[in-house]
Amino acid sequence: MSGQIRLSRRRFLQVLTGTAGALIVGIRTAGAVDLPPALLGGTFQALGPFVQIDSDGNVLIGARDPDTGTGVATSLPRIIADELDADWNRVSVIPLGLGVENDHGQPRWIYGRQLGGTGGSIPAAWQELRQVGALARWLLLQAAARRLGVPANRLRCESGTVIAPDGRRVTYGSLVEVAGKIPLSKNVPPVKTPARYTLIGAPAGDVDAHAIVTGQASYAIDHHYGDALVAVLVHCPWPDGTLARIDTAAALAVKGVVKVLQLQPEKDQPRGETVIAPAVAVLAQDTWSALQGRDKLELEWKPGASGTESSYAFEQQAQARLDGDEAPTARVRNDGDVDAAGKKAARRLEATYVQPWLAHATAEPMNCLVRLDKDRASLVVPTQAPQRAWAVVQRLTGLAPDRIDIRVPRVGGGYGRRLDHDYVAEAVMLAKLVDKPVRLLWTREQDFGHDFYRSASVHRISAIVDRKRNLIGWNQRMASASALVQRGVPDNRLWTSETRVDQLPAGLVPNYRSDWYALDSAIPRGPMRGMPHLSNAFAVESFIDEIAHMMREDPLKTRLRLLGEPRTLPLAGGGALDLGRLVNVLKLVADRIEWKNWLRSVNGLGIACWHIDGAYVAHAIEASMQGEKLTIERAVCAVDVGRVVNPLGLRGQVAGATLDALSTALNLAVTYKDGRIQQHDYKSYPLAGMAQLPNDVEVITVAGDRSPAGASFLAMPTAAPALANAVFRASAVRVRRLPLMKELLRLL
Q1: Per-residue pLDDT reduced to its tens digit, 616-640
Q2: Mind telling me which SUPFAM superfamilies this protein's record contains (predicted)?
Q3: CA-to-CA distance for 561 and 547, rounded, in angstroms?
């Protein structure tokens, strides 16, 4: 990895002319910064969130957030390119590595927020990256004004050229040298008005699509240092277990095997920042030798307290907690008086929903390439959070903030798994022990067997309906194991990974109570795509259908009556719930699926809606039953995320999340017995095949002028309950709905 050029902020934001003749513009940052020098010539590699324009007018834009399949490598650069008035056909996009400088021993993040796959990339970048593009455009206009003898405010930019009122044109490439000598304005140049957008709101294919489908895309697992040792691991089956016996003689006798080392979790570190379980590492000159050596190890592991746990017992424990009279671990919300409302009940309904443990099952297993030199660490790692990975490396090495270089190629799936960095800690520990570069590779079996899983949960909901058929009471109790245990979160906030204070129908029912019951488990838990919305939306939206069934009412009518007239409700976490937008997406999917025929249709129709952080989503699904065979005939999804940067990318995200949610609902569950995970591959954890899924996902996107909201997992929560509601109708079930996994697996 090449060194970096140190520049003051002023010079950093100026045009840099050199052998490459490049114009480079970055985010305004206080103090000096490290300029990724790859933008100055072919001999450099590191890149940052800058614009480069060469003398031929070619434009290079860096995408700062890791792309885990969410399309941010396309959408973020297009925000910059639109403000720059660049010709998109001449833009090249490059993924960025970590940007950090040393601020008196503390990290200063040069590039701002760097976090992928959480739905926040575009909202966080919306203002900042537009300013980056506007600054580059301003410099070019000043250079063109000098060239053409026309005031800059009378010039305009279009597709990589500056145009004068009399029609004269100059290309961006021809202005590089002049622009490099222009002092920066003390004021940030204004960004465009929406009426002038040319790329924002226009569809664009993924910039990496061709490389992906032709097999040319480079992932972290493809990278290698020539002198790196390959490391493979055998983790203890129990996270709290110990190594009882080891014999390494046969492993070390394998040609190419160099060392066998042991790793232990650091007791004083949070989950996700250290080794996930005790492990033995085999380091060899190549992958084949490492795997052969691993197979020759003679190991005996001793279980800890988790050796008696089972997923069945966990579910029974959850049911028992909800059956008992003990106080909840957390009273999440308590509006009105649920107990008093019960005395006015004309009808009551109660239902229980059970959801299983889930694994992330990323396409690219965990891996990390690390080189530790005397005063520098260089890593290539598939992470969703480079800054969090940096914190792990810095703690283990003690290096100054700017001496840690992290490169993040396109990531082969995240789903929240790569917000944790246990595998980074493992690679760095091993590199320190052997004093050589290490290429750590997890196998698929390890990925399944040593995950940070989503906890199973049990939801018990009761409703109170008065004589006027109004829903006047809602009491929801949830039992699960928090994903935030052992992560430095106070006990009174552990519920925040499991439920939301403002989730539907909070604020819509006068007497509303939400309780959470904490369950204990040694099975590691962590962030998962769509949580906590995924589990809660299924329970809530399924239960609303049950209320409609009890009242012999159209489920759409039940929802519309509950949501009421268009209005906004303040949310406890900030912002507001726009019920008009939520009703709109609900009606859009109802119209598209021809909901007016819901009672007469020979197939079952199901519907569901939800809101997440200022975005709104609804699904409608049509399902048929031939005997016990379930067929998903149609799937319709409508989303409202405010202003859409890339409509094609948004449709892809919505369709992908819908299929992911349907696959999860139909097939997926993690089980464990005697503390050991029983799923080890895609055969035992089968993602849905094409025959099980709808031929198409019909996506409706609502055009809006509000600032963009996130869409990464927006379509996850409502697909499963819409499917379950369709199955409920298709199978003419007239008894209380069974838990999702039990019912759907039986029907399949």
Answers
A1: 999 999 999 988 899 999 999 999 9
A2: Molybdenum cofactor-binding domain
A3: 12
Mean pLDDT (the chain) is 90
| Nearest-angstrom CA–CA distance, 107 and 459 | 43
Q: What are phi and psi of 461, to 5 degrees?
A: -125, 135
Angle at 80 between CA 74 and CA 82, to 5 degrees: 90
Write b or e for each residue in 58-95: b if 16 or more Cβ atoms lie within 10 A of its Cβ, otherwise e.
bbbbbbbbbbbbbbbbbbbbbbbbbbbbbbbebbebbb
Q: Which has the closest alpha carbon to 525: 481, 479, 478? A: 481
Cβ-based neighbour number of residue 528 at 10 Å: 25
Q: What does the DSSP assignment read for 48-79? A: -S-EEE-TT--EEEEE-S--SSSSHHHHHHHH
What pLDDT is attached to residue 1?
Answer: 24
For 431-460, the pLDDT digits (tens) are 999 999 999 999 999 999 999 999 999 999
User: What pLDDT is recorded for position 746?
Assistant: 40
Question: Do you find a cis peptide bond into 717, omega within 30 degrees of 0?
Answer: no
- Three-state helix/strand/coil letters over 505-532: CCCCCCEEEEEEEECCCCCCECCCCCCC
Average pLDDT value for residue range 329-338: 97
Question: What is the DSSP code string of 593-613?
Answer: TTGGGTTT-SSEEEEEEEEET
* Residues paired with residue 242 on neighbouring β-strands, in sequence order: 302
- Residue 25 binned pLDDT confidence (cut-offs 50, 70, 90): low
**C-alpha–C-alpha distance, residues 558 and 544, integer Å:** 8
Instruction: Give the mean model confidence (pLDDT) for residues 385-408.
Output: 98
| 660: pLDDT strictly greater than 60 | yes
Q: Checking DSSP bridges between strand 676-677 and strand 471-480, what pairing results, if any?
A: unpaired
Strands 676-677 and 672-673: antiparallel
CB 376, CB 426: distance < 8 Å: no
Predicted confidence at residue 60, as pLDDT, reads: 85
- In sequence order, the β-bridge partners of residue 612 are 615
Residues in the chain: 748
Q: Give me the residue label for tokens 């004589």.
A: 467
pLDDT digits (tens, 9 = 90+) for 585-617: 999 999 999 999 998 888 999 999 999 999 999
Q: What is the Cα 230 distance to its own chain's centre?
A: 29
CA 704 to chain centre: 23
Question: What stretch of H or E contains 651?
Answer: helix 647-667
pLDDT at 199 over 70: yes
Phi-psi region at 526: left, alpha or beta (left = phi > 0; alpha = psi -120 to 50): beta
- End-to-end Cα spacing for the chain: 53
Contact 365, 441 (CB under 8 A): yes
- Phi, psi (deg, nearest 5) at residue 258: -105, -50
Distance CA 408, CA 115 (A): 11
Q: 201: phi > 0 → left, psi -120 to 50 → alpha, else beta; which? A: left
Count Cβ atoms within 10 A of the Cβ of residue 177 and give its class: 0-12 exposed, 13-18 middle, 19 or more buried: middle
pTM of the predicted model over 0.70: yes
For residue 706, count other CB atoms closer than 10 A to its CB: 12
Give the residue-averaged pLDDT of 143-162. Answer: 96
Tokens of 698: 């019909």
